[in-house]
Specification:
2 copies of one chain form a homodimer. Chain A is built from 9 helices and 4 strands, in the order E-H-E-H-H-E-E-H-H-H-H-H-H. A 4-stranded mixed sheet of chain A has the order 2-1-3-4. In chain A, a hairpin with a 2-residue loop joins strand 3 (61-64) and strand 4. Chain A folds into 2 domains: 3-85 and 198-214, Glutaredoxin; 91-196, Glutathione S-transferase Yfyf (Class Pi), Chain A, domain 2 (Up-down Bundle). By secondary structure, chain A is an alpha+beta fold. At the A-B interface, strand 4, helix 4, helix 5 and helix 6 of A face strand 4, helix 4, helix 5 and helix 6 of B. Chains A, B: This is Glutathione S-transferase family protein.
Chain lengths: 217, 217
């Protein structure tokens, strides 16, 4: 059954790989599944046709026959369940890998998103400068804990999993802030993720969209 | 295999049911699984013994034989996978229910947590009053979308699932703000969740901890 995902026609990060379709592309590349991409403008994302697929009017979505999914975590979990390569086989190891998916999305990403909001959406507000250190310290608090847990391990558990795919993707959002460089073991962990051939293919594919649509090609 | 979860010895919400162990208790009650609770003080949560179980030093954790899980979403998903009653049987319907779990935790909860941060942690900051309407409007944006999607349906998909358990739990955090009352269909949806016998048992159990430990009983 062919797989179709949606992505930004023109990514606001200019192809830096931070839009969430990159996470789904990466997962599909890890398990070797081809996919089609339907590009959407911001206006199209808020129209009824897309809201039927994604109630929150975002990208990516995932279509496979009659199945329509939204929410990156759910899409990646579905890919990981249907194809081998992203979740370990033993039930306990599998549950641990899934734990890290949720930890990335519900414990580590929220303060990182708050930092993006503070740095971008609220940058012109009168409190912007004074509030920023507070927001950064909340991110550091999570990074301290994650860094301590990871230690000198290669991945979060014994082998690369969808949990690492998600955690690396979430941490990549920190690159513009410079915060990641305060934690050498986390910076190395992210670099290991970026060095995976599947990540490189996913990154190149999302960058090509930006390059092509920017030049009208 | 006996199940042990951790919870606050003295919940900061004074037994209002907003601490995340309530979500896990609710899931265990829905599937009819007994469980033990180990209570932790704030000091104990930051000690090595607990950090071994939960790298981010929070509650709840979940222990079942050799399996140790943290992160509420992962714990509830594990319970839903191991016992019937929280996920539909068809693979597509199951993937949709899981989608709502992730949507609750990664799309709807983050702005709601930001509102709690603004109202509690940053309430004494010079920007508190001026910034609050902005934070509330970000919550309203998600509630608008969710309310439009839910319409007059009873649950998010055709039957109650772990997705509803998570979404109702996330929306319950809005009660002190009064925002939920702006969306009658969402308020009714939350009330349907609270009316479930399993939720009532979970709520009573967490309240009993607060009552008992507060009176030294």
């Amino acid at each position: 059954m062919p797989i179709t995902i949606t992505a930004f026609e023109k990514s606001p990060d200019r192809g830096a790989g931070l839009a969430r379709d990159t996470r789904v592309r990466w997962a599909l590349e890890e398990v070797g599944q081809p996919y089609e991409v339907r590009l959407l403008s911001f206006a199209e994302m808020k129209k009824p046709a897309h809201l039927t697929l994604h109630p929150f009017g975002q990208i990516p979505t995932y279509e496979e026959g009659d199945l329509v999914l939204f929410e990156t975590g759910a899409i990646i979990f579905h890919i990981a369940e249907c194809h081998s390569g992203l979740l370990p086989e033993g039930p306990d190891a599998r549950a641990r890998a899934i734990t890290w998916m949720f930890a990335a999305l519900n414990t580590v990403e929220p303060p990182i998103l708050d930092l993006s909001i503070a740095r971008i959406l609220e940058s012109d507000k009168p409190w912007a400068e004074q509030r920023l250190p507070l927001v950064k310290d909340r991110v550091r608090n999570r990074l301290d804990q994650l860094s301590r847990h990871l230690g000198d391990a290669v991945w979060l558990e014994s082998a690369f999993s969808a949990g690492d795919l998600m955690m690396v993707s979430v941490l990549l959002r920190l690159k513009p802030s410079g915060l990641l460089t305060e934690y050498p073991n986390l910076a190395d962990y992210v670099a290991r993720g970026e060095a995976r051939p599947a990540y490189k293919r996913a990154f190149a594919a999302q960058l090509a969209v930006f390059t092509d649509t920017s030049t009208g090609g």
